[in-house]
Amino acid sequence: MDTALLSDTFVDLADTMVAEFDVIDFLHMLTDRSVRLLAASAAGVVLADPRGELRVAAASSEEVGLLELFQLQNDQGPCLECFRTGLPVTAGDLTGPLQRWPRFAEAAARSGFRAVEALPMRLRGQVIGALNLFGAEPGQFDPADLRVGQALADVATIGLLHERNVRRREAVAEQLQAALNSRVVIEQAKGKLAERLGIDMDRAFNMLRDYARSSNQRLTDVARAFVEGASAEFPPPTRHQPPR
């Protein structure tokens, strides 16, 4: 095994904190390095979407990508079993009798693959997908290679979950900031309306809210239109209701 390449691969898989992080490029690197390091003929990655349904995320070749898709469409194959159990799944001879996944085994043989090892992409109890190694000849992968392959899958999983958490935090922060910005606009509209009509702030807020509901608009949009002086009258006109 190329120890320099192995070291570089672990560094690359762990480096998901850069601003330009590209998930697709990251996963294609994982499949490419898996082939180069683990004596595999090809490799593919399937990941679960937010609904828990598996999707083909990357493949080292077009043939493997189609074979992975075949597994998912037919709900049969080692990667599905690996994902569902969270355990490695080995198929050392896909041309032998009594196959667990006959349709998959036949499709794999047509594509030139005789063996497969599916490694779970997991962190503790959370399984997000599988890294699948394909061999052109019957026989099991070397145990030492599989330990390295599982380590690659584990590090990649940590990187992907970290990226998801960062994006989730960013989305939450953006939503919070938008809510705070909206609150400022609404407070400005309340004050302007209360002063204009000589009413208290609670009454002004209720008038803004009632108008937003009756006109099927967002309260923030109504408040902003009023603050920006789209009209001197109230209810304030918006893009959906031109000034009278």
Short description:
The chain has 244 residues and is an alpha+beta fold. It has eight helices and five strands; from the N terminus they run ααββααβαββααα. A hairpin with a 2-residue loop joins strand 4 (115-123) and strand 5.
What would you say this structure looks like, in words?
There is one protein chain. With 244 residues, the chain is an alpha+beta fold. It has two domains: 3-166, GAF domain (Beta-Lactamase); 170-227, Winged helix-like DNA-binding domain superfamily/Winged helix DNA-binding domain (Arc Repressor Mutant, subunit A, Orthogonal Bundle), CATH 1.10.10. It is 55% helix and 14% strand. The protein is built from eight helices and five strands. The protein has a five-stranded antiparallel β-sheet, with helices on both faces. A hairpin with a 5-residue loop joins strand 1 and strand 2. Helix 2 packs antiparallel against helix 6 (143-197). The radius of gyration is 28 Å and the shape is elongated. The protein starts with a helix and ends in a 17-residue tail after the last helix.
